[in-house]
Amino acid sequence: MKRKRNLPIYVKTMCFLLLSLLILFPVLYSFTNSFMGPEEITESYSGILGIGADMKFHMFPDHFTLAAYGNVMLDTPEYWLKFWKSLGMAGVIAIGQLLIGGMGGMAFAKYHFPGWKLLFFLFTVFLFLPVQVTLFPNFLVLSWMNLTGTWWALLLPGIFSPFGVFLMTLIFQKIPMEILEAARLDGAGTLRIFVNIMLPVAKPGAISLLILVFVDNWNMVEQPMILLQYPWQYPLSVFLASVNTENFSLQFVCGILSLVPVTLLFLFFHEELAEGISISVSR
């Protein structure tokens, strides 16, 4: 039998490097263009701005400047207001979904009540529904509760999401039942078991859920546009879509700064994220 020849390691490395550069190219392009001045951006992208027909590929600035960063950080307070509001909103939804999803996941994984399989199947089905399908029902319910036009219209549907229940159920199923039984013999109640045993043991999965939910809600667009009433209420993700119509030179800077929270999460917790996902999909 002929032995299969594996590709040399440097060939694999070059392939992955080229693929990574292709995926990261829009980010790199925005990063380098963020150091251009307004005049250079106007000259390069006059076709997009509607003041000319010129449009050319311009990767690196001719004149390096931090003027756009200074403009955003010092002269654009509405950007930072939306930045911190969006950060708080995504953080609250992530923590809330961990708590609600964790308690639901513990119930499905460790307390097999009558009909739990059917109910868990429904949670699984709901995961296949895109957010656009649930927008109108959410709008009707939130309107009946008089919450449309407030940030509660974004927080509540985000917190009570089937994704957290589904993921935490898969993770909690990996925890041996003997640990819960030992805790009960020591006099621990259900809440104490959840807080002091289940969540710490499932730490990688909990961190994975926090990161995935945070990123998803940090980038939400459709929900604010439907459930909120005024542009000043919109989070950062929607605000970025309108920056280019007001000041195109700030578009690149605002986009780069909006990547900072998500990038830091992946840099500091990438091991826990990978471990949590591997635990949830393993049998």
Account of the protein in words:
This protein has helices at 9-33, 38-44, 46-49, 67-75, 77-110, 116-127, 131-144, 152-159, 162-172, 177-185, 190-201, 203-218, 222-227, 236-246, 251-258, 260-281. α5 (77-110) crosses α9. The chain is mainly α. 73% of the residues lie in helices and 0% in strands.
Q: What key phrases describe this protein's structure?
A:
mainly alpha; 283 residues; globular
Topology, element by element:
Layout: H1 9-33, H2 38-44, H3 46-49, H4 67-75, H5 77-110, H6 116-127, H7 131-144, H8 152-159, H9 162-172, H10 177-185, H11 190-201, H12 203-218, H13 222-227, H14 236-246, H15 251-258, H16 260-281
Briefly summarize what is shown.
With 283 residues, the chain is an all-alpha fold. It is 73% helix and 0% strand. The protein is globular.
Q: Mean of residue pLDDT?
A: 83
Shape: globular
Number of strands: 0
Class derived from helix and strand content: mainly alpha
Beta-strand residue fraction: under 5%
Evaluate the radius of gyration.
24 Å
* Main sheet attributes: strand count, strand direction, barrel closure: none
Which stretches of 5+ consecutive residues score pLDDT under 50?
Answer: none
Helical segment count? 16
Order of helices and strands: HHHHHHHHHHHHHHHH
User: Can you give the helix content as a percent range?
Assistant: over 70%
* Terminal residue distance: 34 Å
